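To the structural biology subgroup,

Please find below the input and predicted structure for Glycosyltransferase, which we are adding to the shared reference set this quarter. The sequence is reproduced verbatim from the submission form. If anyone notices a discrepancy with their own records, reply to this email rather than editing the shared folder directly, so we keep one authoritative version.
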Amino acid sequence: MATYAGEKADNLQAALESVYTQTLLPRECVLVVDGRIGEEQEKVIAHYQASNACRLVVVRRRNQGGLARALNDGLQYCTGYLVARMDSDDICLPHRFETQARAFAEQGSLDASFSWHAEFEQDPGAITCVKRSPETHEEISQGMKWHCVLSHPTMMVRRRALTAIGGYRSCFGNLEDYDLYVRLLQAGARMETVQEALLLFRTSMAQRVRRGGLRYAVNEWAFRVWCWRSGFLTNSEFLATASLQIGFRLTPPGLKRMLYRLVRTPTEAQAMARIHTAMIQPKRLAPDGADAL
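Predicted structure (tokenized):
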């Protein structure tokens, strides 16, 4: 997890609390502080450093360098063979780590596990929609040719798989997660998605609409060119996906809002009930292999 000056202390506290109340506690929680932060965030960090439930490893960067650099710095301090990712304003459901770790235990060939995420804006209890991702490795591989079908803060991955490809890259702007997945696939990593929401993702439509413009379009073009040259995309796939994605980056805000809604599933009452039930009074367990993360 990485935080920075623009993060709210309440959001960071909610994110850390969701780690410290997991049914399967991690060996450590590595928090990268990307540049200087305010006093309120420092108080939150000090509180969790004093907790006996899970060791909080704080990695401090003198100057803010962006998410890719922050995550690479944090990866050096991860000691478990599995690494779970999340953002400093998201909330893990209590059974997230246990569910994903079980998938690795049951499938020895699995290298990366993801899940759906449920989105909210201000109130975690007011879910607006659910982002669903393909389940099987083959479906993920095909989907990734067209757009990023995986949710970055839901990733749990074998540390050796990350280090083998050199971690994250920042050469394509904010596409560091998409770039990471493609390189993992090219390296032979096996991926699957748990078919339920295991994380509450804080977002807003205004935030999504800002992910556009000329700079994003240039990065999208450069990334698609690299995918084509590296053999991930065929000639026809490159032409089709580059046209679609660059067009999307340059789409007017009003139309972009409509397109984002098309790739999100409206939350049904039953799904919302399951999410709320999972958040109430998590029971902390200590199953075998609890130090795997």
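Summary notes: The chain has twelve helices and ten strands. The mean pLDDT is 88.

Regards,
Lab coordination
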